[in-house]
Amino acid sequence: MSATREKMEWIHSANIYEVNLRQYTKEGTFDAFAQELPRLKDMGVQVLWLMPITPIATEKMKGTMGSYYACSDYTAVNPEFGTLDDFKNLVNEAHRQGFKLIIDWVANHTGWGHVWTKSNPEYYLHNEDGSFHAASGMDDIIELDFNNPDLRSAMIDAMKFWVTECNIDGFRCDLASWVQVDFWQEARPLVDAIKPLFWLGEFDEIENPEHGKIFDASYSWKWMHKTRDFYDHRQPLHELIELLDQYDAIGNDSMRAWFTTNHDENSWNGTEFEKYGDMAKLLAVFSCTWNGIPLLYSGQELPLVDKRLAFFDKDPIPWTGRYAMHGFYKKLLQLHAEHPALRGGDDKAATIRLQTTADYKILAFLRKNESDEVLVILNWSGDALHFHLTDNRASGIFNELFSGVLNDFDMNKNFEIQPWEYWVFVKA
Q: CATH number of the domain at 351-427, out of 2.60.40.1180, 1.10.357.10, 1.10.1740.10, 3.10.105.10?
């Protein structure tokens, strides 16, 4: 583990909340979002990830407002959201309330109308006819040339700008694996020299192990897709376990971010309830208790049961003043933040799978850090089950997080669990 990561003690107990600023409020501004901070603080949110705040290129723009991910200037603010001073005020207020704040960084590509297309066209990849090279499957963005040392230097300077000028706490790096790994190897220490930062990369470390050596955390894309296949096709549980074994084999030098939805998933593939149905809440429990970092998306506390947010147009989250999932997530996020056994990426916080008489449908595991223990039991099926917890490592009196029911695992290891039910037992 690098010296920088060792300094970032807070990431081991962190959770991340992705903010879709355009859709978060009717106004869609930094100032309007700032009014939501006390509610998010109460829910237990710790790290705010803002989707790209840079201005959007208008050339070949999609929809009426364009894609966040088609940047036209890396060191400016999208006027749709406010001014640079408004953003600084948001960062300062977030810090005052105890949040960390990271921004989305889109290094792989820009919009067609980015200022560099005129000032430095040599920063880009070009087709044989000399035209800019559009990104695969996305005709509103063009790809940069990371073999150009001047481009790399300019990109690093742009990242430094947001740290020095606005005091952000890190980056969520969009399509990080689409950018060659040696750029990140060069960039991170130079930007971290200003202050230690948190780096979340959009890639799956199983497929991109070299990128995993650079970033503090990465996406669990394979898990997200596999769990949907599992639910849709009623696949055997052992296939999920085998994938978890692959993630465990990576070790703790980096962490996995576990999630049920995000901006891409919600807009294009469906909400967590559309994708996972009755399994959605169980997956949320898993995401907050397995080794790693929980990641939530704007509106999950509402929840957005069947509401997909438009990507290129104004489509505000339909807040009602009632947050039906607020209490559910508050219990999970606060437990993850405060309980030593749930520290992500910490070799002292072990994850121990427990044996039951229904291992073909039940995943039971113990998170343990010395005497601190959290015991989780998940029914990955649509069946009510009678089962026995046969593992003697489950021992002592625990309090179930949601029901408050006490159980002495030395006296009682026989249970009946309902379809897709989840239990989180905290050692008393």
A: 2.60.40.1180
Both tokens assigned to 23: 């859709």
Contact 362/379 with Cβ under 8 angstroms? yes
Gap between the Cα atoms of 201 and 195, Å rounded? 18
Assigned CATH for 3-346: 3.20.20.80
**pLDDT of 54-78, one tens digit each?**
999 999 999 999 999 999 999 999 9
What pTM did the predictor assign? 0.97
- For the chain, the residue count is 428
Q: Tell me which residue of 424, 404, 408, 405 sits closest to 363, measured CA to CA.
A: 424
Binning pLDDT at 50, 70 and 90, where does residue 7 land?
low
Summarize pLDDT for 373-400 with one digit per residue, the tens: 999 999 999 999 999 999 999 999 999 9
Domain 351-427 in the same topology as domain 3-346: no
Query: What is the Cα–Cα distance from 400 to 405, expressed in whole angstroms?
Result: 5
Domain boundaries, the chain: 3-346, 351-427
The b-or-e profile of 27-62 (16+ CB within 10 A means b, else e) is ebbbbebbebbeebeebbbbbbbbbbbbbbbeeebb
Note whether 143 and 109 are within 8 A (CB).
Answer: yes
Rounded Cα distance, 239 and 227, in Å:
10
